[in-house]
Amino acid sequence: PTQLNVAQNVVRNATIPVCAILDPTCDTDTETAAEIVDVSSDGNTLIFSDSPREAIGFVDISDPASPEAMGSLDLGGEPTSVAVAGDYVLVGINTSPDFDNPSGELAVIEVATSSVVRVIDLGGQPDAVAVSPDGSYAAIAIENERDEGENDGQLPQLPAGFLVSVDISDADPANWVASEIAMVGLADFAPTDPEPEYVDINANNVAVVTLQENNHIVLVDLTNGMVINDFAAGSVDLVQIDATAEDPAQIIQNESQSDVPREPDGVAWINGQYFATADEGDLDGGSRGFTVYDINGNIAFSSGNTLDLLAAKVGHYPDGRSGNKGNEPENAEVGVFGADRYLFVNSERSSIVFVYDVADPTRPVLKQILPAGVAPEGVKAIPGRNLVVVASEEDSRGDKIRSSLSLYRYGFDDSAYPTVESVSRTDGTPIPWSAMSGLAADPNDASRLYAIEDSFFGANRIFEIRVDRRPARLTREIRISDANDVLKTIPTSTAASDPAAFDDVDRAALVNADDTVNLDPEGIAVASDGGFWIASEGAGTVTSTDTRPINSLNFIVKTDAAGVIEDVITLPESVNDLQVRFGFEGISEFNGRAYVAFQREWGGEAEVRIGVYDVTSETWAFFFYPLDAAESQFDSWVGLSDITSLNDGRFLVVERDNQGGPDAAVKRLYTFDTAGLLGGETVTKVLVRDLLLSGDLAGPGGLIPEKIEGTAVTADGDVYIINDNDGVDDNSGETQLLNLGAIIP
């Protein structure tokens, strides 16, 4: 679809980690999860389900740019969904002792006092809860979910699920009346075992219910409890998708799948006649997109492969999910902001939100792509305040992931994301990219940068990025090649003290049959002769007790402008004997020498090395760099991530810790001067920019990224930084390419 060009945009305003409910600084390992979210009737308080803690949480958004944790309410059971009805929030609670004996209840909680005023027995395990726009009805999808460990998770697995309708029109919850609506016998697949997954209600009090595992959709008139229509969700033929998860990863969108069941999850009414489903899939389905239906069951629009292609275009495609369901759309929401009617589709595995203009539901038009936390689940439009909130449920402190609530504002702002998007290849698919590591500037063209992907991907590539417009455009990919058999014939090693040293088998693994290479490129620089310098980090640590044997040495790789390797340079054997797995991270060229930054101290040394390779004499010298001490409240280390020559004997480096989000503490830019130094000395560093204190990393409104991996200084003096999104593996996939301006004195 063609992207709209209008003044109004949806821009992320702020993000609050759910752990702030427990501790203001999030200094807690307790797992939390914001799954489904709603807002109080006055629009000032978010209420979300927190399944791991068996609680609901509250967040004050009176100032949406500065959300504040308000606390939580323990429920004594697993909350599966929340929905606000006037002064109350309705919470579906799973109390099932096991799969064979599902049970649950609907807790009616007064928002103002956080007190439970009534509990309604639901007779089964609830999933989604919805409240009608007029506040007359609530509908609860009773899934009675299957045991995935029984019969390979196949249906039927009784007892059957159903829908519960609650008449909530009376002001007193004590007078609310619940009734059960059966759904047995409707679906073509496993008709005896319907498993309602999600529900939404339109202005006519018609509930649309997805039976995900049954690949079926049901419409219910809540005024009389009658099923008024039901139909199969259907299947999709997909082309130009990546259906194979390679190791190491490669995004190759040239495969097809036929007759893929949609198996819809989240569903949202667009208006009284059309609704949209997020086709996540479960058993044997998942069509990687969304679908618009009319109330008669006709398909008005199907997104096909579009979401997978868009995810690859903006660096969010999760290649590890290629063999499963790709970007995996999870949920849908519709918000009407003035004259604009937008559909929001959460992509669970790509951790982005696709925004479509659905003024004409039969012709959705891509509006924007928004960044979110890891695994966005719930999404709620708040048109009365020109806000949207997205709940991202994944939480793992050790993996630098914190569950979060992200707030976005609708208004006259420039679209802020993506910061980089790629152009299309000749076959119409975008140049796929992710896991950006080193960054370099073209010395003669201030509008051109070069980046490189790290070892998450095989068949490594160099990327050309044009920054003369927003978002920046990734316009070219250059595949690194060993066509001259340079890498294939480098000497095996070294590291005599290590019984698992770099050997012929390790070397063979670095080069593919088509001469592409599987290195770990962490740094890149434009060479004075027009080619490229690449710093490839070694793999493994020299010690007989380490669990990571030496699989690769640290290499300086010199290529021509087409990416063909011309030379491979290794460290002296005495230095290789000290190798730890935190090796080369950045490279730069100055005055006939290549300078490489090691990430961390090697072999028990007190300071980290800066290596200097003289191209003419083919000799090495080394300086030492004093790293900042670790300052994070969580266990951490500090290292270097990139090095950039300032062309006067000074160098700019990125110094960062290995923490993200609220645990991040060290993200800084320093310079040091090599003038007058001969080798062996410790350089004196000068702080140029603290990226945390300056607000640079908080500016985009998300949680602080862990890996600030690349920096470049353009011909006109602007400093760019970029983060590594880890190939969207235990990562939101967000990539921020930021121009800090001419900050170097």
What do these coordinates show?
The chain is mainly β and 745 residues long. Helix content is 2%, strand content 42%. It contains 3 helices and 50 strands. The strands form 13 sheets. A 5-stranded mixed beta sheet has the order 31-35-34-33-32, with no helix packed on it. Strands 1-30-29-28 form a 4-stranded antiparallel beta sheet, with no helix packed on it. The chain is elongated and about 90 Å long. It starts with 8 loop residues before the first strand and ends with a strand.
Q: What's the alpha carbon Rg, rounded to whole Å? A: 28 Å
What spatial order of strands do you see in the largest sheet?
A: 31-35-34-33-32
* Oligomer class: single chain
What global shape is seen? elongated
In percent terms, what proportion of residues is strand?
35-45%
Overall pLDDT score: 96
Distance between the termini: 45 Å
Structural class by sheet pairing and helices: mainly beta
Number of strands: 50
Query: What is the helix tally?
Result: 3
Which regions contain 5 or more consecutive residues with pLDDT less than 50?
Answer: 1-5
**What is the helix content?**
under 10%
Biggest sheet, open or closed, and with what strands and sense? 5 strands, mixed
Q: Could you provide a short overview of the structure?
A:
By secondary structure, this protein is mainly beta. It has three helices and 50 strands.
Could you name the key traits of this structure?
745 residues, mainly beta, five-stranded mixed beta sheet, four-stranded antiparallel beta sheet, 3 helices, elongated
